[in-house]
From TrEMBL:
Top-level taxon: Bacteria
Naturally occurring in which organism (per UniProt): Streptomyces atrovirens
Species lineage: Bacteria, Bacillati, Actinomycetota, Actinomycetes, Kitasatosporales
Protein name: Uncharacterized protein
Amino acid sequence: MTGADMALPAQDERTLPAVVLRDIDTRPLEQVLTELQSVIEHHGHVIVVCSQATPLAVRRRLHTLRSLLESDRIALFRPDLPPLGLAVLARQLRQLASCDLSPGVLASAGRLLIHYIHSGALLGSVARLDRVPVDLRQHAKSWMPGSQFAVLAHPQPQLVRLGPEASLDGPEFGTWMLVAKGQLQSDWVTTALAPSWKVQGLRETPLPADSPGWWGTGKLIEFCTYLPDLSVLYQLVTSVRRGVCHWCGIDVIGDRCVFCSAVPPAPEGTPALARGRT
């Protein structure tokens, strides 16, 4: 993780602790390089999970570190999830890290588990929201005093103005909900949304530091539903067909290797243009 606030408390006794790469864009490059090399030597492989809202300087430093180490044992994972959803996904990977999964399968698991996460927020304004489509009428109403908006960012964007009939499309399977409160005062998420989604449990956590920037306002309550049970997560991951990266030889789920970024070679006889060559 690139921020300590993204390292959620362990879900169970098997959940491995997160390694936090602190201030990697401001500390001396040599110092951060030594730290990351030590982590690789201790664990073998490293999956770096960071938000789409992570500053450009941090992302550039991560790519610089990976290049300098000349290592295919570092996977940079930046899924398109709001900060709280990303923190939940990172914890699920920490849960699975205690199982008998190879590094490639574990890193690939993030792309699979993201489909089982519903992530959104209750906002006091959508005037600066640019990650979910906002029409002109909703934008205008966001300037009205007292207006609140329920927003689902993942898996399918959805935005409704809060009212007696307001609702969001939720998961069709049993989940838990995690709630992080910002500067907005409302109980709609816990008293209306959670029951309508039939969540099986609800917990609260501090708001991630990246959340106000991601949502365009500090007046928010962020929420996320997820699968908490390690056995269910493990069954989902192990039920998917695995392959072997033709470049680095690591086990993977899906078409692209998360460590070396290689994709399967085109079948013999495929026209050059279809292979992406000119």
